[in-house]
Amino acid sequence: MMSSNARPPARPLIRPRQEGFTLLELLIALAAMVLISMVLGGVLRLGSRAWERGEQQLEIQERSRGLVALLSQELRSAYPYAMADGDKLVHFFQGERGRVRFVSALSDPSPAGDASFRVVTLFLEPGRGLFIRSAPLLGRGLPEEGRASAHLLDSRVQEFHLRYLGPDGWVSSWEPQEVKPAEARSRGLGSGLGAGSAPESAPAIPRAVEITLTVAPSRALGPITLPIFAATDLKKTNPAGKPGS
Fold first, then answer.
1. Strands 157-166 and 208-215
2. Predicted model pTM
3. Beta-carbon neighbour count of residue 98 at 10 Å?
4. Are 115 and 181 in contact (CB under 8 A)?
5. CA proximity to 238, closest of 71, 80, 120, 75
6. For the chain, what is the domain count?
7. 243 with 81: CB under 8 angstroms?
8. What is the DSSP code (8-state) at residue 18?
9. Which end of the chain has the lower number of beta carbons within 10 A, N or C?
């Protein structure tokens, strides 16, 4: 017989199975998260760059539209103004490949309250941008160019090239054309100065001016070339009266 004080045999201790991830599963999950993060980050970066580029292009278009409109307006206002050059009369319009100077029919108020012609100069200063210089034409002869202050139009312009349409096609420069004696008599220019519309057969000033601007807005977009074509109107009348009278 077993003693009443005898202990029952010990049962083996069975531990319940614990739920969790193995080290391999954790490494696989971590690698998947890193891969997903890299893909999402790349998509976000591409979207951000596309948005930024779109904003820059919109800004460039807005600013360039204003610059193109201004240059076109100034060149369309070019007037075949006749002035004395030594012992002869010439229609003043002087153009080079990177610089142009002409008389504009867009008048500014004079100190006396009358309308006057303007002498306009468009030029590029390397490293600084595109400039315009404008001075009223109040007396006989052209005002000294240095007396009028230059105004910056756009500091982003890196290149400024012009061509001029003459009777024989496009040329890279334009010199003041002499007023023929018959034309001077018909327009009453014997006194040495005067104004009026040039005859259709005489290209007193270029029939058109072509401008090519190279604008460098940012490193992301690179340089942008803007072609501008402005036709001058040789038949325009003088809205300011006869200058120098």
1. antiparallel
2. 0.64
3. 14
4. no
5. 80
6. 1
7. yes
8. P
9. N
pLDDT reported for residue 240? 38
Q: Based on the number of CB atoms within 10 Å of its own CB, is 82 exposed (0-12), middle (13-18) or buried (19 or more)?
A: buried
**Do the Cβ atoms of 174 and 93 come closer than 8 Å?**
yes
Among 112, 176, 123, which Cα is nearest to 148's? 123
Of residues 103 and 106, more confidently modeled: 103
Token pair, residue 220, equals: 């992301």
Say how far apart CA 216 and CA 213 lie, in whole Å. 10
Assess whether pLDDT exceeds 80 at residue 96: yes
* CA 243/CA 114 separation, integer angstroms: 10
The alpha carbon of residue 193 and the mean position of all alpha carbons in its chain are separated, in whole angstroms, by 36
**H or E stretch covering 60:** helix 23-76
What the block records as the tokens of 69 is 């409109």
Please check whether residue 83 lies inside any domain of the structure: yes
Length of the chain: 245
Fill in the amino acid letter for 5.
N
Pairing outcome for strands 177-178 and 88-91: antiparallel
Is 3 a member of any domain? no
Query: CA–CA separation, 85 vs 182, rounded Å?
Result: 17
Q: Is the dihedral of CA 142, 144, 145, 147 positive or negative?
A: negative
CA–CA dist 164, 146 (Å, integer): 25
Is the residue at 62 inside a domain?
yes
pLDDT value of residue 184: 54
SS3 236: coil
Which domain covers residue 64, as residue numbers? Answer: 55-231
- 5 lies in a domain? no
